[in-house]
Amino acid sequence: MKRRCGGKYAKSSAKKLILTHIAPWCFRDDTRVKTYPDGHQETIYMIYLIFDCVSANRDVTINEEFDDYAWVKAEDLKNYDLNAATRVTLSLKGLL
């Protein structure tokens, strides 16, 4: 893996997603109702900083917040149970 350090790329042997290009795409904000595992809810203010990225590989490492991931073709996105914020983002990008 290459890690960006002070404008240079440093090599690392860690097997993770390697991003070769990152560019800001858009900024969004929203007020959402978050439901916690115990069922209680809270209204939260969200700020979305969304980037376009190109990767050199497909080695994704997910944290405990997620159960799984999938690389999905744009034409198949409509078949997924996406939350409202994700639907807005993908629609703005022309993918839904």
Automatic annotation (TrEMBL):
Keywords from the UniProt entry: Hydrolase
EC number(s) on file: 3.6.1.-
GO molecular function: hydrolase activity
InterPro entries: NUDIX_hydrolase-like_dom_sf (IPR015797)
Record carries keyword Hydrolase: yes
Top-level taxon of origin: Bacteria
Protein name, as recorded: Pyrimidine deoxynucleoside triphosphate (DYTP) pyrophosphohydrolase YfoO
Biological source species: Klebsiella pneumoniae
Taxonomic lineage from the root: Bacteria, Pseudomonadati, Pseudomonadota, Gammaproteobacteria, Enterobacterales
